[in-house]
Amino acid sequence: MISAPEQNYLRSEFEKYTDIRHLVVTDLKEKMENILSVLDSNPVLSGRIKNFDSYFSKYIRLLKTGMNPPLINDLLGVRIICPFIEDLEAAEDLICKNFKIAERETKGHFTFREFGYESTHLLIKIPKSIIKKHGSPGTDLAEVQIRTILQDAWAEVEHELVYKAEFSPFDEPMKRKLAAVNASLSLADIIFQEIRSHQRKYTREMGKRRESFFQKIEESTDELLFTIESDSANARAGNNAPYFNEEKSSAANNLNGSFDSSNANIDDLLIEALTSHNQNRFNEAISQYTKILDLNPDKIICSIIYKHRGMANFACCRYDKAIEDFSNSIALDNDSYKAAYYRGVVYSVTKNYPKAIDDYSLSLKIHPYQPFCLFRRGQAYYHIGDYPQGLADCENSLALEPSNESAVKFKELLLEKLKM
Fold it and tell me: Looking at the predicted structure, is the pLDDT value of residue 236 above 50?
């Protein structure tokens, strides 16, 4: 048993390094924050140093195991809290690449005492530059814990209920309750990761679809202004626009096979529809959008699906159907400024410029800060001979997006028309 005088000696020796440990752990935390700043997930870091009571308690426990003198390596440490499971490996890789690792341990016990505590623990060598700056903290090692938010929540609660209290529940219902809480948190982590992965895939497919749609807009409207051979430009802007190749799309359908939608939910159907859309399999995408609408989701979802289907119909140069879909989208959601803008584009392509101007104006009434919508409305004014209004819209568009080369070129055209 440790005598009181020896405890006092240990306290005196321990507290010699307190100020230095605070400085060292602060520098370690800042260094790791800089290293991890490349991650999109923005993990949260916290630094800590062990207090004497915690140190002495661990010292006694290690003595009981026969370790003399006890080796305690977690006198100071940094905790890295990540939002999702997938971030753990990325954070660990960055730490391992930038520090010398003395030891790695994945804690995940499932005994009656520890109930599934999970965490990745790294023992790193404190960089010599930090020790040189502040002096020795009484150790050359620091502990790094890497956890998800939910793993950290469990660890904190478990530490209070079980570890610090030296609680060993023999009551089976109590053990089952603790195990159930841990299982629930673990399942929640997995579900959050699945949702994030699904969200990322959806965002990626949405981005591809939007890019292809805007490409179609560029091909169908800008050439009316900037192509030297106006007859050729008008042909490209008509119903034979060279964007959709039915034969190619049919071949793509055969290569990709059919999607089994029997057990698919709306999210799955939408991802599949967007994937088909992005691969120029427009007929298949339209069919999948229609299946979603047949499920009678709420009106906001219906509005979104009509908007997507309208974009697919537009890509196929089925302008009447595209207008119908965009109109349905607007009817279901009065704030759908994009659907109003898209319908205006269709009217522009079919040279119904007064209706195009009305739709662009509707879109801008809902959301005034749209440089692309101002630019398109300016084009429509140009085509009906209202050059001053076209110039006003073009200048407002450039005020919001000065780097738009097409708008710059359009302004030059308008100034030439106005002989300014």
Answer: no
